[in-house]
């Protein structure tokens, strides 16, 4: 795909190359970023498809080194100067920084909640005992088990179409997905329930995108930040990701976190809520806190410290049975 910017013919500047994964969702997300960037800067923008281990290998993510399988091939393409920008789902990004890579922009996030797509328009609570609910995410498994509905959680992987297809075909009674993915793919009408974050907290960063560039490309980083960055989304996801980092958990750990900017008495404040669970959902530490808008990192640290004091590390890394 090539988007012709309004400045293209006069400026003589090369097109900005955006690296994207090949899935329909990734291409849609990258396309949105390409459109916004072209519109805001007048530059030509092209999409370049890069295949990643997470797309090629359909084994459970936890067996592939979990963190970052969707991310590293795009970063390699950036560092090799094959593309100028990489667009990721922010929740797939490892919490630690990588040398040479700058998180140039975090655009305005979509609704971060998880949703259910079930047969016959049903909600989770309406499904019969023993009904099969598909998800590959330990975070979703644990929090849904904790609801005590008597449904059977079944591991599924694959793109959005594959997962919803298992409900359409009758193989599963329901699947759980990120609402944001369905919004971007124009498939919101298939949602049968939106899960309340009080019961099922989304992954840190869910619903947000990350636009990365080479750290040496300071001019492009500034251009992209100016065109795409949303300060409220950035504050919220920095806080959520700090909770995850402080709990020393990766992107496939049973940790949920959701922060929001709210209007306080003296201006904007941050609100954050988080959960860490045992894998079977039997034990959970849930906490919430609020703090100053301009210190999302401090608030994330504070909340994580409270969760650690409540035993979050023991839940996430149980001692082996003797
Ligand atoms: N786990 C893969 C993944 N990474 C980002 C999204 C959805 C889009 C988003 O959260 O921004 C999904 C699919 C899903 O969880 O249903």
UniProtKB/TrEMBL annotation:
Residues 16-221 form the Porphobilinogen deaminase N-terminal domain. Coiled coil: none annotated. Tetrapolymerization of the monopyrrole PBG into the hydroxymethylbilane pre-uroporphyrinogen in several discrete steps. The gene is hemC. The lineage of its organism: Bacteria, Bacillati, Actinomycetota, Actinomycetes, Propionibacteriales. Residues 236-308 form the Porphobilinogen deaminase C-terminal domain. Keywords: Porphyrin biosynthesis, Transferase. GO terms for biological process: protoporphyrinogen IX biosynthetic process. GO terms for molecular function: hydroxymethylbilane synthase activity. Its cofactor is dipyrromethane. Belongs to the HMBS family. It catalyses: 4 porphobilinogen + H2O = hydroxymethylbilane + 4 NH4(+). This is Porphobilinogen deaminase. Binds 1 dipyrromethane group covalently.
């Amino acid at each position: 795909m090539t988007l012709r910017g309004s400045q293209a013919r006069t400026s003589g500047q090369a097109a900005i190359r955006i690296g994207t994964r090949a899935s329909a969702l990734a291409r849609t997300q990258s396309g949105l970023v390409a459109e916004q960037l072209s519109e805001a800067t007048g530059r030509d923008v092209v999409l370049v498809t890069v295949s990643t281990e997470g797309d090629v290998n359909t084994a459970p993510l936890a067996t592939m080194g979990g963190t970052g399988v969707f991310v590293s091939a795009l970063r390699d393409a950036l560092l090799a100067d094959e593309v100028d920008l990489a667009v990721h789902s922010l929740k797939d990004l490892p919490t630690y920084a990588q040398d040479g890579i700058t998180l140039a922009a975090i655009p305005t996030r979509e609704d971060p909640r998880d949703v259910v797509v079930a047969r016959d328009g049903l909600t989770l609570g309406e499904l019969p005992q023993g009904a099969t609910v598909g998800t590959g995410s330990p975070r979703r498994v644990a929090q849904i088990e904790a609801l005590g509905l008597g449904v059977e959680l079944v591991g599924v992987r694959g793109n959005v179409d594959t997962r919803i297809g298992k409900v359409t075909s009758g193989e599963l009674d329901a699947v759980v997905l990120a609402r944001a993915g369905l919004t971007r793919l124009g498939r919101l009408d298939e949602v049968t329930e939106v899960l309340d974050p009080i019961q099922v907290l989304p992954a840190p960063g869910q619903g947000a995108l990350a636009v990365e560039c080479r750290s040496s490309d300071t001019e492009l980083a500034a251009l992209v930040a100016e065109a795409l960055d949303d300060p409220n989304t950035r504050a919220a996801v920095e806080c959520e990701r700090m909770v995850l980092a402080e709990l020393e958990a990766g992107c496939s750990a049973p940790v949920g976190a959701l922060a929001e900017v709210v209007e306080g008495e003296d201006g904007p404040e941050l609100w954050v809520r988080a959960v860490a669970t045992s894998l079977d959902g039997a034990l959970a530490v849930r906490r919430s806190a609020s703090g100053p808008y301009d210190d999302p990192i401090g608030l994330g640290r504070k909340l994580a410290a409270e969760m650690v004091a409540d035993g979050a590390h023991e839940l996430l890394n149980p001692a082996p049975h003797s």
